[in-house]
Amino acid sequence: MHPADDDLPASLGPVRSRRPLGGGDVGAAEEVRLADGRRVFVKRYAREGGEEMVASEAAGLRWLDEVDGAPPVPAVVAAEGRVLVLEMLDVTGGSSLDAAGEELLGRGLAALHAAGAEAFGAVPPGASPALGSRRLPVTPTSSWASFWGGQRVLPHARAAADRGHLSRADLAAVEEAVDRAEELMGPPEPPARCHGDLWWGNVVRTADGRPWLLDPSAHGGHREADLALLELFGGLPARVVAAYEEVTPLADGWRDRVGLHQLPPLLSHAVRFGGSYGPAAGAAARTAL
C-alpha cells in the first residue's frame, strides 16, 4: 500500500496507480487511477485549517456548478478531512483560450454572476465564513462598500503595513479610498455569485476548447471584482468583455473602478510577498481617488 493510501476516502475503492503532480500553496496533488477505471485528482491540504479549506473548496465548486450556463467546474468526488478528490480534467494549453473559448468564458461569467447570492460576504452552504489564503473571517452584509472596505481591504492593508510591506503614504491612500467607497464604487449592484479567486491560473482549457474554473474562493461579491482579478494577473481580453456584455451589460464607468477591485488581491500579496505589491496597491488607490 502506498503510504498516502490510508488518507484516501474509502468510497474510492482500491488504487491502481498514482502520479505526483507537484504542490502549491496548500499541499501536494496527484493523479490517481482507481481500480474501477476512474481517474481522479487528489489534493491534500497540509496547512493548519486544512479540513476547513477542503470543506470550503468543495462547497464552492458545488455552488458554482448549480448555475446553468456558467463555466464548468470539476465535479467533487469526495471531500474528507484534509483530502479533496475531484474529477480529473483533460487539460490542454493551460489557460490559453481561442476566440470561441474567450466568448464562452465571457458569457459563462455573466450567467454565473447573475445567479446571485444572499448577501455580500455570504459563503456557499457548507463553507466556513472565511476567504482567501489568509482565511480572513467574513460577515454577510447588504453593503458592498462596507464589505469591500472593512472586510477585504483594511485587514490586508493593516497587516501589510505592520510587516513593513506598505508605506505610510500608501496606507493613507488606501484608507482614503475606503472612506470614499460609497462614492467611488459606482451604481449599486446586487450581490453576485463570484468565483472569488479568478486569475488565469484558475482558468484551464480542456481538449474540447471549453474554459473550466478551478480553486474558487466562492462568495457573494461584486461582479466587477472577478473581472478585475482576471485583468490584474494576465489581462482581460476584449472578447471576454464583449461576450459578457451581450448577456449582462456592465455599469457605466466600470473600467475606472478596476483598480479599486484589485486592492484586495494586491494587498493580500503585499502581506505575503512584499516587493512591488505594496506600491502597486498605493498607486491603484490614488488612481481611483
TrEMBL record:
Signal peptide: none annotated. Gene3D superfamilies: 1.20.1270.240, Phosphorylase Kinase, domain 1, Transferase(Phosphotransferase) domain 1. Residues 1-24 are annotated as: Disordered. It comes from the Bacteria. It holds the Pfam family Fructosamin_kin. The keyword Transmembrane does not apply. GO terms for molecular function: kinase activity. Keywords: Kinase, Transferase. Belongs to the fructosamine kinase family. PANTHER family: FRUCTOSAMINE 3 KINASE-RELATED PROTEIN (PTHR12149), PROTEIN-RIBULOSAMINE 3-KINASE (PTHR12149:SF8). This is Fructosamine-3-kinase. It comes from Pseudokineococcus lusitanus.
